[in-house]
C-alpha cells in the first residue's frame, strides 16, 4: 500500500461534519425546536423576533448537547442495538472523549447564552432539562427500571415550558399543560417502538417494559396512557392557549390515537410477527404526526386569535 493510499484511508476514517451533526440527534432536536417555538409564540407576551430566534437556537443547542452526552454514555449499548449501531460513537467516527467534551461545552454555552439572551428562569429550566436527560434518564433510569420512559419522558417535555419562560419569565398553568401533553405522549410513543424493536432492547439489557413484563402488558399500558392523554389534550382547548381550531384538531387526533392504541391492544404476538409488526410501526409513525400536529394546532390557534401581534410576532 502506497503512502497516498494509506493517507486516503485515514482521511476516510476521520469524522465528517455530518457525524458531528448526527451526534446532536437532529431528529430529536427538530421536535425540541418546534415545541419550544410554540411555547414562545403562544405566550401572551411580546418577544422581539431576534430574541425569539436566538432563544430557540440555544434551546436547540441544549437539546443537541443532551444528545451528545447520551451517545457518550450509551456507546456500549448503542453498539449492540441494530437501530443505534450506526451512531457516530459506536461506528467509530467520533470518540467517547469527543462526545463528552462536545456535550459539556455545548451545554454550558446553551445555558449561559439563553440566560443572557432571554432570562435566567428559562436558562435554569434548560440546565435542569439537560441534567435530567443526561444523568437522571441516561445514567440511571434507562438501565434500571421499566419505568425509564415514563419518568425519563419529562426531559423531552420541558422545551415548550422553556419557550414559555423565554416569553414570560416564568411558569404557568398553560406551560405545565404543554409539558403534561408531551409527558403523557412519550410512553405510548416509545412503547410502540419497543414492540417491534424488542430484540434490540433484550440484547442490550435495557429493561424496557416489553423486556421485563412482556408485549401483552405493554399493549395494555399503551392503551391506558393514550386514554389518559386524550382528556388532558382536549382540556387544553378550554384554556387561554386553546380555542375552536385546536379543539377540532385535538378531538380528531386523540380519537385516532386512542383508536390506534385499541387496535394494538387487540393484536397478539402471533399476528404481529406474521405481518412484521405493520400496525405497531404505523402507530409509532402516527405518534410523531400526533405531537407535531397537536402543537401545530396550538400555534394556528394563537395566530387566528391574536394575529401577528402575538408572542414573538
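^ C-alpha cells above, recovered residues below v
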Amino acid at each position: 500500500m502506497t503512502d497516498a493510499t494509506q493517507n486516503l484511508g485515514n482521511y476516510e476514517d476521520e469524522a465528517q461534519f455530518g457525524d458531528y451533526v448526527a451526534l446532536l440527534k437532529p431528529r430529536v432536536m427538530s421536535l425540541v425546536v418546534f415545541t419550544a417555538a410554540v411555547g414562545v409564540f403562544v405566550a401572551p407576551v411580546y418577544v422581539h423576533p431576534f430574541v425569539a430566534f436566538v432563544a430557540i437556537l440555544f434551546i436547540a443547542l441544549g437539546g443537541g448537547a443532551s444528545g451528545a452526552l447520551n451517545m457518550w454514555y450509551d456507546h456500549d449499548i448503542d453498539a449492540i442495538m441494530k437501530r443505534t449501531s450506526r451512531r457516530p460513537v459506536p461506528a467509530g467516527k467520533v470518540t467517547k472523549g469527543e462526545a463528552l467534551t462536545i456535550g459539556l461545552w455545548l451545554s454550558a454555552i446553551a445555558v449561559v447564552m439563553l440566560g443572557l439572551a432571554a432570562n435566567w428562569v428559562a436558562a435554569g429550566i434548560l440546565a435542569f432539562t439537560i441534567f435530567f436527560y443526561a444523568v437522571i434518564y441516561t445514567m440511571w433510569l434507562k438501565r434500571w427500571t421499566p419505568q425509564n420512559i415514563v419518568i425519563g419522558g419529562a426531559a423531552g417535555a420541558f422545551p415548550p415550558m422553556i419557550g414559555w419562560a423565554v416569553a414570560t419569565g416564568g411558569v404557568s398553568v398553560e406551560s405545565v399543560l404543554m409539558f403534561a401533553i408531551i409527558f403523557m405522549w412519550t410512553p405510548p410513543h416509545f412503547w410502540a417502538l419497543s414492540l417491534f424493536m424488542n430484540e434490540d432492547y433484550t440484547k442490550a439489557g435495557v429493561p424496557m417494559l416489553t423486556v421485563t413484563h412482556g408485549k401483552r402488558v405493554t399493549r395494555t399500558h399503551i392503551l391506558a396512557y393514550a386514554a389518559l392523554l386524550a382528556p388532558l389534550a382536549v382540556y387544553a382547548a378550554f384554556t387561554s392557549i386553546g380555542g375552536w381550531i385546536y379543539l377540532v384538531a385535538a378531538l380528531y387526533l386523540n380519537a385516532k390515537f386512542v383508536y390506534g392504541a385499541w387496535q394494538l391492544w387487540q393484536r397478539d404476538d402471533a399476528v404481529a410477527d406474521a405481518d412484521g409488526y405493520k400496525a405497531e410501526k404505523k402507530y409509532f409513525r402516527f405518534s410523531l404526526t400526533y405531537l407535531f400536529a397537536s402543537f401545530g394546532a396550538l400555534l394556528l390557534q394563537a395566530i387566528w386569535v391574536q394575529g401577528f401581534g402575538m408572542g414573538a410576532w
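Residues 278-306 form the longest helix (29 residues).
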